[in-house]
Amino acid sequence: MCHVIVTCRSMLWTLLSIVVAFAELIAFMSADWLVGKAKPSSSEDVDNRTGGSQEPYHPTLGIYGRCTRISHMQFSRRDTLCGPYAENFNEIASGFWQATAIFLALGIMILCTMAFVSVFTMCVQSIMKKSIFNVCGLLQGIAGLFLILGLILYPAGWGCQKAISYCGPYASAYKLGDCSLGWAFYTAIGGTVLTFICAVFSAQAEIATSSDKVQEEIEEGKNLICLL
User: Is residue 72 part of a domain?
Assistant: First the structure.
């Protein structure tokens, strides 16, 4: 018989697992890993409504994508265009970034799978006498290690030609040059920290769902058990 068990700690772990997976996925897909040096407005960058020059813009560069400003001949208007600069894996600007993409993709795949599984832990808490919480926590820890490897390798690729074109000639491995770090990089770091918190908190979720109070509710014949 399936017993739906919802506790404060297990629900918090489930929600955190989902948030972490989405945060890492969004960061990976974003082009805002590096913010390039400001491009000054040219004589063509004129706001037709005010007659003044537009503010300088900052192109951004991700692991496989980029955002830059493109010109429109009509009205001398410029729009920001974002999209992948690499049509396939081999065209990613640096070998270090290719390794970063692999490790981050592996970590995110595990996290997304664990986020999906965590939803069903309300109904199924163990498989083959193994706690799903503990298994998920272990896999989340492994995912966190993959994410750390990816984030360590990423700055080693700052010396590639693509990064230099955005960050200036002084950019090199682990040196930003004229660039700054974008929100996606910080989001990936924050998500990695939360991944390990999830891994540790999974043990608390397991304790909460197997407590004596839960067992008493099961013995009383209840199928839906909600505990704070």
Answer: no
Give 226's pLDDT tier (boundaries 50, 70, 90).
low
Q: Is residue 181 part of a domain?
A: yes
The CATH number that applies at residue 158 is: 1.20.140.150
Residue 115, in any domain of the structure = yes
- Closest among 97, 90, 31 to 58, alpha carbons compared: 31
Helices 132-153, 8-29: crossing angle, 10 deg rounding: 30
- The rounded distance, in Å, linking the Cα atoms of 222 and 114 is 27
Residue 196: how many other CB atoms lie within 10 Å: 18
DSSP string, 202-218: HHHHHHHHTSHHHHHHH
Question: In total, how many domains does the chain have?
Answer: 1
Condensed to tens digits (0 to 9), the pLDDT of residues 23-63 reads: 999 999 999 999 987 765 544 444 444 444 456 678 899 99
Which tops the pLDDT comparison, 203 or 223? 203
Considering the domain boundaries, does residue 58 fall inside one? no
Question: How many whole angstroms from its chain centre is CA 181?
Answer: 15
Cα 171 from Cα 177, distance rounded (Å): 4
C-alpha to C-alpha distance for 12 and 116, rounded to whole angstroms: 14
- How far, rounded to the nearest angstrom, does the alpha carbon of residue 177 sit from its chain's CA centroid? 24
Which residue type sits at 47? D
